[in-house]
Amino acid sequence: MKPKRLVVGLTGGIGSGKSTALAAFERLGAATISLDQLAKEQAKPGRDGYKAIVRKFGKGILNNDGTIDRAVLGKLVFSNPAKRRELEKATHPTILKEMKDLIGKMNGVVIVDVPLLFEKNLQKSFDACICISAMPRTQLTRIMRRDGLNEKDAKLRIKAQLSMAEKMKRSDVTISNDSDLKSLNDKVQSYYAGLDLICRGTN
User: Fold this and answer.
1) 144 Cα distance to chain centroid
2) Is-above-0.85 flag for pTM?
3) 130 vs 39: CA distance, rounded Å
4) How far, in Å, CA of 77 to CA of 34, rounded?
5) What is the β-pairing status of strands 31-34 and 5-12?
6) Domains of the chain, first to last
7) Phi first, then psi: what are they for 144, rounded to 5°?
8) Which of 33, 103, 171, 183 could be disulfide-bonded to 131 (CB atoms 3.0-4.6 Å)?
């Protein structure tokens, strides 16, 4: 008999708290995957993603030690939609292949943090989709504080994604994250209990 597995795509706008929610699911016992983390690993020297990025954007995006300067690359692609699409085209196939390989090795409730889940029409890869939502001002404040960006650059990153309203509409469930950490953890715990029950009941 095949192992029971329920694969859930976790999405939301930048700065909405997806990574925090993912960590909460993991503490409760879910198997987790972060596509942002896979992307960071793929961008390390020697990896296929790294080679594809350097081929596409040249050595001008590299630090002196040969690593990719994420700030330089980020400024380049978030100020130019065409460049952003080039980056996605160069890196996404490798990242998605790794995601599918990892999912195939996991059992139980699997939560996958996918920032561009709907933008890239990946919803068919998941049994359900959860959106972590936050008000625009909350997103902006978190991004500026977390990434050290000014307001203009932070807004560019928000604008690069599908609107929060559209993500919420396309998701099966929305978890609001405009309050404190305890509130988010309580909501995640409640939904995880339901997902675990569903998973245990699947054939």
Assistant:
1) 18
2) yes
3) 21
4) 21
5) unpaired
6) 5-201 (3.40.50.300)
7) -60, -40
8) 171
